[in-house]
């Protein structure tokens, strides 16, 4: 992330800069040698948006663990619409609080990284929601390479987005939530389907428009 931020001029480095909390020095090449330098935000760092679109792989790994252990979980939010999906027979159901703690542990590196960047003064950070997964079990198994029931995968992605929204509120960063724009009854609308994992161009347009809306509002209050 630091490499990308330096390449797009959101950060620069110098041996004269103090080391910032949570950030390690970076190696800068000078001719045939490298030297360690500390990084700092540039004066114009907040003039563009930085969208973190992450979490699908982490969610997939956790889903596989739940399927293998035949575990279900309670949720602290409304799941209207999911009742049309086939039920999942689990040998044990995890409480919503326990599941939330598990998700916080899984996504702790992301949460810590966002907090560090926000504390440095990078205000124009946005975290994107994880998109709704495939509705069809065969389609999902083809993409994920293991069988997984629709009810479980939908509840899990919704719980991840529930956590993301809470983290964004706590850190004071933008949450780009396109879920209500591409679902009906919390299930993916077919007009946004692409390949069983990613959503299509129409969703991308909605996503970019939402980033633009939130970034414009942020600029107005700066």
Explain this structure to me?
The protein has 222 residues and is of the alpha/beta class. Helices cover 44% and strands 17% of the residues. It contains eight helices and ten strands. The strands form four sheets. A three-stranded antiparallel β-sheet has the order 1-3-2. The chain has a three-stranded parallel β-sheet with strand order 4-7-8, sandwiched between helices. Strands 5-6 form a two-stranded parallel sheet. β9 (183-184) and β10 form a beta hairpin. α2 crosses α6. It is elongated, with a radius of gyration of 20 Å. The model has no long low-confidence stretch (mean pLDDT 96).
Helices, strands, pairings?
Elements: H1 2-7, E1 11-14, E2 26-30, E3 33-41, E4 50-52, H2 56-69, E5 71-73, E6 92-94, H3 96-106, H4 108-119, E7 125-128, H5 137-144, H6 150-171, E8 174-176, H7 179-182, E9 183-184, E10 187-188, H8 201-221
Parallel strand pairs: 4-7, 5-6, 7-8
Antiparallel strand pairs: 1-3, 2-3, 9-10
Helix pairs in contact: 2-6
Please, what is the average pLDDT? 96
Biggest sheet layout: 3 strands, antiparallel
> What is the H/E string?
HEEEEHEEHHEHHEHEEH
* Fraction of residues in H or I helices: 40-55%
Radius of gyration: 20 Å
Give the gist of this structure.
The protein is an alpha/beta fold and 222 residues long. The protein has helices at 2-7, 56-69, 96-106, 108-119, 137-144, 150-171, 179-182, 201-221; strands at residues 11-14, 26-30, 33-41, 50-52, 71-73, 92-94, 125-128, 174-176, 183-184, 187-188.
């Amino acid at each position: 992330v630091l490499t990308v931020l330096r390449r797009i001029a959101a950060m620069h480095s110098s041996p004269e800069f103090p080391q910032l909390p949570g950030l390690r020095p970076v190696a800068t090449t000078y001719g045939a040698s490298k030297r360690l330098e500390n990084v700092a935000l540039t004066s114009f760092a907040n003039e563009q948006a930085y969208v973190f679109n992450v979490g699908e792989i982490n969610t997939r790994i956790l889903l596989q663990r739940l399927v293998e252990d035949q575990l279900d979980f309670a949720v602290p939010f409304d799941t209207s619409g999911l009742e049309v999906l086939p039920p999942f027979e689990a040998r044990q159901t995890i409480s919503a609080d326990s599941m939330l703690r598990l998700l916080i542990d899984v996504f702790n590196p992301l949460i810590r990284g966002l907090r560090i960047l926000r504390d440095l003064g990078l205000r124009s950070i946005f975290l994107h929601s994880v998109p709704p997964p495939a509705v069809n079990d065969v389609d999902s198994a083809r993409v994920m390479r293991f069988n997984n029931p629709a009810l479980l995968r939908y509840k899990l992605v919704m719980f991840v987005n529930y956590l993301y929204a809470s983290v964004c509120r706590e850190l004071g960063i933008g949450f780009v939530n396109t879920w209500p724009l591409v679902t009906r009854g919390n299930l993916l609308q077919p007009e946004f389907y692409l390949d069983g994992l990613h959503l299509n161009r129409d969703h991308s347009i909605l996503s970019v428009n939402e980033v633009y809306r939130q970034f414009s509002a942020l600029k107005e209050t700066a």
